[in-house]
User: What shape does this take?
Amino acid sequence: MNYVFGKRSKEKLAQCHADLQLIANEALKVSRMDFGISEGHRTIEKQQEYFHAGKSKVDGIKIKEKNNYQPKQARASLIVARR
Assistant: This one.
């Protein structure tokens, strides 16, 4: 089956490092399951939201994750839609 990224996934993927964009696009071409990109560059405000909610050990100010740099250097986050 030929899957394509939706508008939101394309917008999030555009915030990622060029290498991650290539990997995600190639993965979608060979995937047996549809998936999307749930997050690209993470703002400091979003990082602090995760930190205060206990979802991250990094506050985004004193310590930064790869998600906090533009373009995003960390792995692309994937949502797997089971069919």
